[in-house]
# Entry
Amino acid sequence: MPDINLSPLTAEQSAMDRRRKMAEAMQQQSILPIEMPTVPGAKVSHLQGLAKILQSYVANKNLEKSNAEQKQYEANTMDDFAKIFGLAGQRETIPGAVTSPAVPSAPIPENVARQAELARLDQPEVGFEAQAAIGRNLMRPQDVQQIQNLPTSTTAVPEVRAPDQQVPMLKVDMLRDPNFTKTSAGRIMLAQALMQQRTQEQAAAQRALEAQQQIHITKPGETAYRMGANGVPITVLSTPVQPKWEHTSKFVNGQEVTGWVNTNAPDIPGSFVQGTIKPEMTEPQRLDAQLKQYAADVEAIKSQDVNRKSIQFQPLPKGVPVGAKRTSGKTPDGKDVYELNGKKYVGE
# Structure
């Protein structure tokens, strides 16, 4: 059974190999001795020697031709590979298609006629000077100026094109171009490069699609989003901030009220939820509450860190609720006046 090679990558090489084998067989046959006749009385023809010489000459020429073909084939194959390698991964700019054709400038006949008529009034023909003067005097200056300013042609509009595109330099049409590659090996390499290029384009498109569909996980209180095709985030949902309650207390009209505040709320003090009102404080408890209030005031001044001033702790007189601030006023008998929530207090 003959050796059939259906691969286009080696079809040309196989043909050259068959021609080489035929030339080698002919050369081998030319060096074999001439067969002597076995019939009694028969002689060897002198032309048989010439036939051997001719056979050897033809065989050598075919071998030289085969070697030259092999070298040329290898050179052409390398040229094809170099050309494909040089274009692989490269892109070229294709101008965008025309979305709006150009509109050339066109004359405006009525405006041209009006300006020509005005010119005839300014430079009348012989014999019509009086009529032109009358017509010119009947026109107001603003009318003349308006006619002179009339456009005589429309404005040309350039064509509008879609944005330019970057496309690969390797194209499928090159497979059908017999002048692009010289060998079947080059065409196969071109086909492989195009398949790899298509695979990369599909993978890039898939990654872009996955990036658009990916939901970015965020912390509570932030916005979950995915990236759009133009790189602009698209909001998917906003996760609410989970409340974080902490036990605390504050003073209301001199009484300490316990409760809870949400430390994740924008306005932490405003999130206070009242719990229970403690009973009337003893003097040690009042003094302790005053010290806490003093510490809070100090921290508030520190946080400002602007024109910081030192304050001294002064115990409140009996009967003045915790949190009251001393005013500049005094009673007739010289006692200090304190204020809390708009209400005045005087110590006992």
Q: What stands out?
A: The two ends are 128 Å apart (CA to CA). The CA atoms of residues 23 and 61 lie 8 Å apart.
